UniProtKB/TrEMBL annotation:
The gene is asnC. It is an enzyme of class 6 (ligase). It catalyses: tRNA(Asn) + L-asparagine + ATP = L-asparaginyl-tRNA(Asn) + AMP + diphosphate + H(+). It comes from the Bacteria. This is Asparagine--tRNA ligase.
Amino acid sequence: MKTTISQVPKYTDQQVRIGAWLDNKRSSGKIAFLQLRDGTGFIQGVVVKNDVTEEVFQLANNITQESSMYITGTITEDSRSPFGYEMHVSDIELIQEAVDYPITPKEHGTEFLMDHRHLWLRSKRQHAVMKVRNEIIRATYQFFNDNDYVKVDPPILTGSSAEGTTELFHTKYFDEDAYLSQSGQLYMEAAAMAFGKVFSFGPTFRAEKSKTRRHLIEFWMIEPEMAFVDHDESLEIQEQYVSFVVQSVLENCKLELQTLDRDISKLANVKAPFPRISYDDAIELVKEKGFDDIEWGEDFGAPHETAIAESYDKPVFITNYPTEIKAFYMKPDPERSDVVLCADLIAPEGYGEIVGGSQRIDDLELMKQRYEEHDLTGPAYEWYLELRQYGSVPHSGFGLGLERTVAWIAGVEHVRETIPFPRLLNRLYP
């Protein structure tokens, strides 16, 4: 029976055949222990000299790291294995012998590993991180599909900036200027006016020359947008979504979290509702914690966000930021024109902002005023203004950064390990 490692629990005490690579091995004279991987998981293959031909045993002893093979054996339960099963090998068919595999079971520098990212992905730790990422994506689709959202794909090439910043990758679109998208949000607002509740999931780009552990040049965003939904309703949706994703990872990635040595007790507590603190109170909080250099009207940096997060054991919303430091499309607080109806969701344990959202301006005249204040002229923004002209409604949305969320849930220090092939300030290879 040909199968995969992830499926072997179905075949206890049965003989199976698996296509695999050798991750590592050790030998104790008459027994060889092969650490095997096939992309779906890892399992130990035990080769006993007296149970196989001399040819097979010699192959088991001599096979090199990352050589590929078809391996046949009987699946048995093994309580000592994190996976819970092992294979008692009866035959090995070598497909290709790998020679001088560069990533050996020893310490390698980060730059070396990043240069060999195409191979580093095979390691047990990187495999676990990518499986957590995959589960977050799977749970995302389940959450929004179960709640009647429509998946809409915004363009990657755009004629304007969503955030009104200069951190854009410029390109030529035939005879016009174009930019790589830094957010699909404006287009998702248009989609929400057509479908009510929508979400997108796609790559975004920021030409920000940052080298921090929280930043990538190319990253993926989940961006829902909802018609007839106000700011407070949006916060409830955000905390329900994040809670659902975290609990899904806890349920479906137990082995991966164990591989990563993740303290799951901190994740088990991530359930809605989440605490909320206003920007005003957050400023006072960080000052009490010794950050005397920040003043009202300034944005929080990573140390400030960490200080705020340390006061809570769940993700925390910071709400109602000053109008001047937020995007042009955010709706002012009806009771205070100097702040907007927005929130950033700060992850615990120093992982920073993972979600940013707001209620959008739905008033045509106010949006025209914002256009003038931000010098948003020309045809590139005209269609967005028309959304307020034809059947405008209260609406809200948010964006979740996938890689930062993976880093937090997996307990990974740097976001470069949370995406298969990271694009960093000085890295476009491989």
